[in-house]
Specification:
This protein is of the alpha/beta class. It is built from 8 helices and 9 strands. The strands form 2 sheets. Strands 3-2-4-5-1-8-9 form a 7-stranded mixed sheet. A two-stranded parallel ribbon has the order 6-7. Strand 6, helix 8 and strand 7 form a beta-alpha-beta unit. The protein is globular, with a radius of gyration of 16 Å. The two termini are 21 Å apart.
Length: 215
């Protein structure tokens, strides 16, 4: 299994991401954690502030968008699409919205199978990293679990269970979500739950049985 989990964007270690992916660099970018934001506002942000597809292309990793809304009820099609890439990059936003999108599209089962085959790398920042944990308990101190997208589905705190600990991004980072991140880290500590606190710039890299925290 290969994972690249970042607090903010690619962190300070884009070279490590490129090395982890290797030669098969074509990338699919999932932005469904932002589905609660109007499309027009997202387009303005992409055009004026940050475009992850352009950033990946500049890194020599040809990228395109993949919208999980197009695969609801079609996990076989999703599997076929993800099988074409060497990296799936999952953006930040609201972790609970993202989890609902993943579950509705069948992403959960598909990504487990592809990672078990070492067919691709799962990379994600912020919410994209949070959802890899076994549980999202405590992360509701950062993200509102009731944000109204993907229908009126009952709130679930189940994570993808790709990484064995909770991941708390933006800790002590001056990010707009840092106050909530600090609260989440304190809550997890009080509960005795294992977690990794990431400051912006830091990255967790998992390759096979080795996990490394890059500063």
């Amino acid at each position: 299994m290969r994972l690249y989990l970042s607090s903010h964007r690619f962190g300070r270690h884009a070279d490590a991401l490129q090395g982890l992916v290797g030669r098969r660099r074509n990338t699919l970018v999932i932005g469904n954690a932002l589905d609660y934001i109007p499309a027009a506002a997202r387009a303005v942000y992409t055009a004026t502030t940050y475009d992850p597809v352009a950033a990946l292309n500049d890194m020599g990793m040809p990228a395109s968008w993949l919208d999980l809304r197009d695969y609801v009820g079609s996990p076989i099609r999703l599997h076929d699409q993800l099988s074409t890439c060497g990296l799936v990059w999952v953006l930040g936003g609201n972790a609970f919205v993202l989890r609902r999108a993943m579950r509705a599209s069948g992403f959960d089962g598909v990504i487990h199978g592809l990672l078990a085959q070492d067919a691709l790398v799962y990379g994600g920042s912020s919410a994209g990293a949070i959802v890899t944990a076994p549980t999202l308990r405590g992360l509701d101190l950062m993200d509102d679990p009731t944000v109204g997208t993907w229908g009126d589905e009952v709130i679930s705190y189940e994570g993808l269970n790709l990484f064995p600990k909770s991941v708390v991004p933006h800790v002590a980072s001056g990010h707009r979500d840092s106050a909530g991140a600090d609260k989440a880290a304190h809550w997890l500590t009080d509960q005795g739950m294992p977690f990794v606190a990431l400051q912006d710039g830091q990255v967790i890299v998992v390759e096979g049985g080795t996990t490394t925290l890059l500063p």
